[in-house]
Here is the input.
Amino acid sequence: MSTAHLIVSIAGAAMAGFSAFSVFSHAKWVVEPLAEYGVPRSWWPWLGTAKAAGAAGLIAGLVVPPIGVAAGIGLVLYFTGALVTVARAKSYAHLAFPLVYVAPVVASLALAS
Here is the structure.
């Protein structure tokens, strides 16, 4: 494992974990846009859990690489869904946020090989 892979995997896990914590703690700057995008409140715990699982999987992947790859793919799919949701809500100014969160995950997947 390279140093770059270690760094971007930890960064991706930290960012996904922070995002999960923000949903679980109902941070105003996270849940208000979710409501504006039309994401049902009943989905929020599941979305937070998916991000937390992805973060844990990226860390576990440092020891067991297939777990990290699976977690990375899951997070890429999650944040792709976030991009679609934001675009469908026509909140184009917010499109950058899912991209910022997915970037280290994509880098981690690219460096995993």
Observations:
- The radius of gyration is 14 Å.
